[in-house]
Amino acid sequence: MSDAGSDRGKRPHVVIVGCGFGGLEAARTLGDDGLVDITIIDRSNHHLFQPLLYQVATAGLSAPSIAAPIRHMLRRQRNVTVLMAEVAGIDKQRGQVLLADGQQIAYDHLIVASGATHSYFGREADWAEHAPGLKTLADAFKLRAKVLMAFEQAEVLDEEGARRPWLNFVVIGAGPTGVEMAGTLAEIARHTLKNEFRRIDPSRAQVLLLEGSPRVLQAFQPELSAKAQTQLEGLGVAVRTGARVVGIDAEGVDVEQDGRRERIPARTVVWAAGVAASPLGRNLEVPLDRAGRVIVDGRLNIPGHPEIFVVGDLAAAQSLERDGSSKPVPGVSPGAKQMGRHAAQTIRARIAGRPEPAPFRYIDYGALATIGRKAAVADVGRFQFSGYFAWLFWLFVHVYFLIGFRNRLVVLMDWAWAYWSFARYARVVAETAQPPESAAAPQNMGPERKS
Amino acid sequence: MSDAGSDRGKRPHVVIVGCGFGGLEAARTLGDDGLVDITIIDRSNHHLFQPLLYQVATAGLSAPSIAAPIRHMLRRQRNVTVLMAEVAGIDKQRGQVLLADGQQIAYDHLIVASGATHSYFGREADWAEHAPGLKTLADAFKLRAKVLMAFEQAEVLDEEGARRPWLNFVVIGAGPTGVEMAGTLAEIARHTLKNEFRRIDPSRAQVLLLEGSPRVLQAFQPELSAKAQTQLEGLGVAVRTGARVVGIDAEGVDVEQDGRRERIPARTVVWAAGVAASPLGRNLEVPLDRAGRVIVDGRLNIPGHPEIFVVGDLAAAQSLERDGSSKPVPGVSPGAKQMGRHAAQTIRARIAGRPEPAPFRYIDYGALATIGRKAAVADVGRFQFSGYFAWLFWLFVHVYFLIGFRNRLVVLMDWAWAYWSFARYARVVAETAQPPESAAAPQNMGPERKS
């Protein structure tokens, strides 16, 4: 640990916005050897391992298993200051980040790594309320409570027709997140909750996965899409491709397929269909792509400002391949991590007067998606495989390459324990019973209990 | 596992309201041998180990470590139906429990075990918002976020005077809960967060414990009160006895002591000073004591209704001692558990036509309170002891006698792991940065980022 405190103020100051995979890797790569001072700003107090967020949403893991306090992770880097704050804007001319409380943080170098949020294709105001997405811990907690309370509500209701919408679960979007959510929901209904209800049979819950394009996991090879669909159906998930969602409300969804329109009653709808770049992208006043991502060059810089880098889901970056071709960098966790590292290496090289690294090249570990507890599909370069082996590979890649907190062995033991116990102890939620809106007025049996 | 399903409807039906220590023990004692059918109703989906709730509030343990899903715990009792619902009232004449959604649940025997909530001595409307209590998981989550965000806010602020209220923590009420909270808050500030901030020194946080009576732990022997105070002060807690709180708002508390009135600026205030019985007590329309608890006889019945039992924090019960004297049963977890068991044994005896158990006698394990990670005070019959040994005793008693979920060894390992890592990984919270109300309007540096 260097004595980085005494030279504070004389060293170049790097500000990092966001402590996801991109921001965290940048902070670590910038190092603690006295070359720079670092301020990292995040609106949350934790770094989140997003690939496993769906496990928190389905009560398979608790939040501390997939997240860690940022300032705890970075405590040994004495040159790093962590601020939990909202960034309101960026002043490129003055070289300052503006916080929502009015403070201005001056930078010599800036790395914007604020990630992505949900996109509801213009139907934000209507749909977001009824079909929550899954990007943050708050999302996962809300979804978890919604799923668990749906079963509880079905158990309390004493009429079969009233129960059905509570036992219908719809997942919109069959990318990796949607596939993982749908598979896990089916497992909860069929295994976890199997013997725990008396008035309902939880295995009669129906999970429906809707996808607008012709196949699930559109970004994977077609053979893997087919395998994934087979595995999902084996778990009891009903999969519908070529199905467009045209309406969402509190009691269900409206779907258009093959020219016909259908109403599906469902009290629990999960949105896994679209992401949009963080609004800070627009704030930079530079060209964006259609998803709102900031177009960056081979150094991950924006035009005209070599001191400003954009990495991760907010960036539309190109990977310069060995054969000289360019491939777009996908919005996945390893991409964010590699970009964060590259930006930090570039900054260090420039400050030290050394040659910069070569233009960014993305090392593709392949696309992975799990389906339930024992299966997955993996698309790795020239290899495609699926099933139990793919699942083990998924686990290895995630733990080895991506975990940024605790000891990897501890994380593995933690997840193994959760897996083995399968009791989903993360089922404990703070929410309490709410009578349904359509309940008859209670008869006057005595003073009404105030909740 | 008995085949309890086929005779459903012909057996006496016992309804239990609340699945805390009293309700859970009653359900288990009533058994699964086919004598009764049981419906247990709780507004939460979990049984809570309340003695360790302060650990969740101070990010020492995560919720699944101290709570378990009710229907998971009772899944093997096939004669038990678990309903997550709010009870709106009780109709003694018709023998029905009324749910908030309008359903009526008929019973042959009723055990009301709905516990206690906070009392703000009539100042509910004003004080509850600023000084949250600690009775449920929702309380603990809110408090945890409040405490952690206070340090984060102090770090972001760049002016010393503005920081001080965020680093002042006030705990009101020096019973076991208040003492435990104050001690743990001091430990967080001095140990857990020690190296993790750059702009503030978290060990300069001040924890103030206010108690209206002349000593802390008023229910313990005076020598133990003195020892507890010494241990608290050793941890850095400022203790003030004979100090009455006369005002609470968003920015601090007003205290009257020795005839003088003082204003203490503090953004985080914890209420640990008073409890009130659940409103279901009034609903029963029977005599209550001053705290709103239902007065019950030696069988734990209410007057005129031998089929209705009240147990736990809702009951004002007497213990018939061996020498014939009566002592009030304290509102503690072992008391609730023993009362729940006694009521269930009485019901079983009556149904089977056997003699009822003797009038209720409370076995007093003694009063225990921890102070930080290594010390406690214990008042057990003729023995009083304190320090590390008392802390071990506390641990033994809690794990052995009170844990109602999982394997005791697993719970012990879980808590041991949390203790040893001391990193308080339960620090991860969903809340995001909120600019303080008094922040200056942000200067117009660009489009404002919508949070």
Secondary-structure blueprint:
2 copies of one chain form a homodimer.
Chain A: E1 13-17, H1 21-30, E2 37-42, E3 46-48, H2 53-57, H3 63-66, E4 67-69, H4 70-73, E5 80-84, E6 87-91, E7 96-99, E8 104-106, E9 109-112, E10 116-118, H5 124-127, H6 137-156, H7 160-163, E11 168-172, H8 176-192, E12 206-211, H9 222-234, E13 237-241, E14 243-249, E15 252-257, E16 260-265, E17 268-271, E18 275-277, H10 280-283, E19 294-295, E20 301-302, E21 305-310, E22 315-316, E23 318-320, E24 326-328, H11 333-352, E25 367-371, E26 375-380, E27 383-386, H12 388-402, H13 408-421
Helix pairs in contact in A: 1-11
Q: Name the CATH class of the largest domain in chain A.
A: Alpha Beta
Distance linking N and C termini of chain A: 53 Å
Amount of helix of chain A = 25-40%
CATH architecture of the largest domain in chain A: 3-Layer(bba) Sandwich
| Rg of chain A computed from alpha carbons, rounded to a whole number of angstroms | 24 Å
- Tell me the number of strands of chain A: 27
Note the quaternary state here. homodimer
> Biggest sheet of chain A, open or closed, and with what strands and sense?
6 strands, mixed
Q: Which fold does the CATH topology of the largest domain in chain A refer to? A: FAD/NAD(P)-binding domain
**Helical region count of chain A?**
13
How many discrete structural domains of chain A? Answer: 2
The chain pair with the largest interface is: A-B, 81 and 82 residues
Q: What is the strand arrangement across the widest sheet of chain A?
A: 5-2-1-9-21-20
- Name the average pLDDT of chain A: 87
Give the overall shape of chain A: globular
Residues in β-strands, percent of chain A: 25-35%
